[in-house]
Amino acid sequence: MPEILPNVHPILVNFTIALLAIATLLFLVSAIWGRGRPLPGIEAAANWNLWLGAAITALTIAAGLQAAGSVTHDEAAHVVMENHKHWAFGTAALFGVLALWNAWRVRRERRVGFAFVAVLLVALGGLAGTGLRGADLVFGHGVGVLALPEAAGEGHTHEGGAEHAHDEESGGAPPVTEGALSPAEAEVAAALTSFHAALTTGDATAPEPFVLADERFVMLEGKHVNRGWADYRDNHLKGELADLAKVRFRLSGYRIRIDGDLAAADFEFHILPRTGPEMDFGSGRGTAVLLRSGGRWKLQLLHTS
Length: 305
Prior knowledge:
This protein is α+β, with helices and mostly antiparallel strands and 305 residues long. It has helices at 9-33, 40-68, 75-107, 114-140, 183-199, 229-244, and strands at residues 156-157, 163-164, 218-221, 224-227, 247-259, 262-273, 282-293, 296-304.
């Protein structure tokens, strides 16, 4: 499989949408303009588009389930993913019933009826809703998307002459690379890196040296929150250990501010496979608050999105 694709679901879903949408359009034409005279060519094309589309939809569903279990995602993306899955199951089932109904109709040599086309249009609406939720997963939550390279320089000019920079959120200032950090800032960055590396060891206790392992620790992931280290460890981290053991984190773009024993940092993170081709399973931004305790920086709050 090409390195850019972690699974074949994005390929198959295009055939599902195209075949079923064309089938619906052709059946609609047959029902409206074919009442007075038969349109055998259009109806035959509609039949095969529906049957092939229903068959490929079964493969698309299977590939989607494999994709859901293989891509790393946060709690917010998981909610959208479950919604997308439920819409997909319902829509696929409806098109499956329509394919069987159509086979019965053809066998009995019945004409295309408006009731059949009406149900097709309902199924097409379900297909559109499923596709919109899938698009939200990719474009809204970055699930399964390779990261864009970090922009260097001031930006580039398009053919229309509009010039823009790629770090608009920071007011155009480039992210700070790890090599540009001061020694004190590098200590904070090292604490964050060590914490994320410990998350992937498969041991729920491994990150404890890098956090305030008591009720002061707060973890926010999207809209989900854990208050206290025990709450995060037992009710969140342990459920993700198997998936985290398959990946590694790459942190970059640090912006760190230190005031005595308090440090605040924001950074970019990328989730990469532990071994194999370099591909991005997910990316986002994190904000952290750290306290110096026992001579080392420890996480008190971490918010990722």
